[in-house]
Amino acid sequence: MVQNVAAFFRDLEPEDFYLLSGIEQGMRFSEWVQREKLPKYASLTSEEIEYRIDRCMQHELIQRKTIQYEGYQLTFEGYDALALRSFSERDTIDGVGAPLGVGKESDVYEAMSFQPLALKYHREGYTNFREVDREREYTADHNHVSWLYTARKAAEKEYEALEGLYPDVSVPRPVDQNRHAIVMEKLDGAELSRARLESEQVVGVLDLILEEMAAAYQRGYVHSDMSEYNVFIDEEGITIFDWPQAVPTDHENSDELLERDLTNIYGYFKRKYPSETPDSVDTGALAEDITVDELDSVRSYSDS
Ligand SMILES: Nc1ncnc2c1ncn2[C@@H]1O[C@H](COP(=O)(O)OP(=O)(O)OP(=O)(O)O)[C@@H](O)[C@H]1O
Ligand SMILES: [Mg+2]
């Protein structure tokens, strides 16, 4: 599990961040940055580097590996600290609060500002990277794709999708993005998977979800990871979140992905609310209604 760097963030000094961003720079070229290169990357003297390495190692912001040479890389905590510093410098957030969700691919925390926000650190690429690393030990890496890159790309993709969808589609309002992290509106309510709908609400809620999926399609996106875990529900309605794997509608598989999303959501309703959910639903036809902009037929889906 990745530690919450917010707990000791205030103890970090500007020079600690010089070292962290120096190592970040070096990691563009190799997984383990040579110790000799650090003074140049970090613009610090050798003695200062020594001291900063100790501090950053103590906080587990960096790690060391000595095989052919002494090398350093950021841990996810180190990368988190860099993102957090950017958010704090541009006054996006004033503090980090309780965890909202901790998963394999992300850590989400409450964040403080004028209004409650959510801070999501992407963790994509970490497990893969670990496996690759173990298999081949260290060799001069010509074409390494680091977890830094994979996680940052995921955050960029998710943020871009949110910006393209908000406010026409019910998604969390995007606030800021840096490195592998995004800041967005904090959602109230609960995941659909944890809600227990009343009989008379079931079809209405399913309709709301289908309408938002149709609206997202109109805005040029297919979610591609739709499930009861990526929909929030409260008295006001539903919100679809978790968009890093969204594909544009002109992507060659977008219609298949849309149909798979529809099958997932419909399947969930059918399993959890068998008697309230209509039986004969053709998700292929539903997908077609969405792609040819037959919003009315999607909306009156419950009558079918
Ligand atoms: N904007 C938000 N407001 C409140 N809670 C959120 C928000 N975004 C995410 N969460 C919480 O964090 C959890 C994980 O977020 P998300 O689904 O975006 O990431 P994930 O990569 O799917 O994580 P996992 O690997 O656990 O599935 C969500 O299930 C939800 O409980
Ligand atoms: Mg999710």
Automatic annotation (TrEMBL):
Keyword ATP-binding included in the entry's annotation: yes
Domain Protein kinase: start-end pairs: 94-304
Keyword Kinase: yes
Cofactor(s), names only, from the UniProt record: Mg(2+)
Superkingdom classification of source: Archaea
MF (Gene Ontology): ATP binding; metal ion binding; protein serine/threonine kinase activity
Pfam families to which the protein is assigned, alphabetical: RIO1, Rio2_N
Root EC class: transferase
EC number: 2.7.11.1
Catalysis performed (reactions): L-seryl-[protein] + ATP = O-phospho-L-seryl-[protein] + ADP + H(+); L-threonyl-[protein] + ATP = O-phospho-L-threonyl-[protein] + ADP + H(+)
Residues in the signal sequence: none
Keywords noted in UniProt: ATP-binding, Kinase, Magnesium, Metal-binding, Nucleotide-binding, Serine/threonine-protein kinase, Transferase
Family of the protein in this entry: Belongs to the protein kinase superfamily. RIO-type Ser/Thr kinase family.
Name assigned to this protein: non-specific serine/threonine protein kinase
